Amino acid sequence: SSNGGAKLHPTTPDHGASKVALEGWMTLDAAKKLFEAAGQNYDALYAAANKPSFKGQDLGLNLTTTLHNKITYKTSKNVVAVLPGTTQPKEYIIYSAHWDHLGIGPAVAGDSIYNGALDNASGCAGLLAIANGFKQAKEKPKRSIVFLAVTGEEQGLLGSDYYAQHPLFPLKNTVADLNMDELLAFGPMRDLTITGYGQSELDDYARTAAKEQNRYIIPYQHPETGSFYRSDHFSFAKVGVPALYASGAFESRLHGKAFAEKEREDFEAKNYHQPSDQYNPKWDLRGAAQDARLLFRIGQNLAAETTFPKWKAGSEFQAVRLKSRPQ
């Protein structure tokens, strides 16, 4: 795990008494040692767990320990701004980005500030840029545009989940969520990678906007990482709101696919959830601006319509949407 700090949970009436007695993170090396102590091979069980027929196994190990736990209560905020629509103000398009990161943590090379420049100050910058774009546009949107900066994403999508469970505006009237998380900094891209491709008609809106930039659509190339379930758009999908998580990722317009792959892998290996995720003046932010313009364009197109994008047949999120907005 890349998160070794304290774990936050929303406050419940029973102050967490109904949660499991022990939960926590374990590094990969520690997990392998645990399996070895149980006479099991981690890699073999991992491969087996990826098959539909897999069933959980008792490792036959017991843990005896004493924990001295300190419980603290904190308050954090989601930040919301709204640009009212001109003719359909009670229909809402949400742009989301999480503003939190990991705060102060274990020092690495003498640095203990986990800045979160790409993850996710970049998304917040995109949120502000898009808001400014709508403000400056000559033609104002017919539908209302909601700009939502959420807290607690790194702790399990806490802020976006809270909004989804306590929406300021009716979910049945919420057209879509367009989410930004890690706008990359290695220049303009040829691809637009959609995490969760094939889930909803928002793919079609993305394709139209991508063509205007001479870009092509591809699904996220590493679905095994579970990325669709790890950013704030998922909170909206769970309650039936079509959600899009898309950005350039796999082919640099200037340097090709191998360059983009290396840049992305280097960030994930060296800077992701590390103090080194900090602003670098050598960054080429044209790709981030490109993605922000594309998402702005998608929002413009959605705001000009009267229809609502739908989940595609077979999507696990379709049923909950149909309860509030039958097709």
Describe this structure in words.
The chain has 327 residues and is of the alpha/beta class. The protein has two domains: 1-74, no CATH class; 79-324, Zn peptidases (Aminopeptidase). The chain has nine helices and nine strands. The protein has helices at 28-37, 42-49, 117-136, 158-165, 202-212, 233-238, 256-271, 286-303, 318-324; strands spanning 79-83, 88-98, 103-108, 111-114, 143-150, 174-180, 191-194, 216-219, 243-247. The strands form two sheets. It has a seven-stranded mixed β-sheet with strand order 1-5-2-6-9-7-8. Strand 3 and strand 4 (111-114) form a beta hairpin. Helix 3 (117-136) packs across helix 8 (286-303) and helix 5 (202-212) crosses helix 8 (286-303). The radius of gyration is 21 Å and the shape is globular.
What's the helix and strand layout?
Elements: H1 28-37, H2 42-49, E1 79-83, E2 88-98, E3 103-108, E4 111-114, H3 117-136, E5 143-150, H4 158-165, E6 174-180, E7 191-194, H5 202-212, E8 216-219, H6 233-238, E9 243-247, H7 256-271, H8 286-303, H9 318-324
Parallel strand pairs: 2-5, 2-6, 6-9, 7-8
Antiparallel strand pairs: 1-5, 3-4, 7-9
Identify the notable features of this structure and list them briefly.
single chain; 327 residues; alpha/beta; Aminopeptidase; two-stranded antiparallel ribbon; 9 helices; 32% helix; 17% strand
CATH topology of the largest domain: Aminopeptidase
Kindly estimate the percentage of residues that lie in beta strands according to DSSP: 15-25%
**Could you estimate the helical fraction of the residues in percent?**
25-40%
Q: Which spans of ≥5 residues are poorly predicted at pLDDT below 50?
A: none
CATH superfamily of the largest domain: Zn peptidases
User: Ends: how far apart?
Assistant: 42 Å
Cα Rg = 21 Å
Q: Round the mean pLDDT to the nearest integer and report it.
A: 94
CATH C-level label of the largest domain:
Alpha Beta
Give the number of DSSP strands.
Answer: 9
Helix-strand category: alpha/beta
Individual helix count = 9
> How would you spell out the order of helices and strands?
HHEEEEHEHEEHEHEHHH
Which sequence of strands runs across the widest sheet?
A: 1-5-2-6-9-7-8
- Globular, elongated, flat, extended or rod-shaped: what is the shape? globular
Number of structurally distinct domains: 2
- Biggest beta-sheet profile: 7 strands, mixed
CATH architecture of the largest domain, please? Answer: 3-Layer(aba) Sandwich
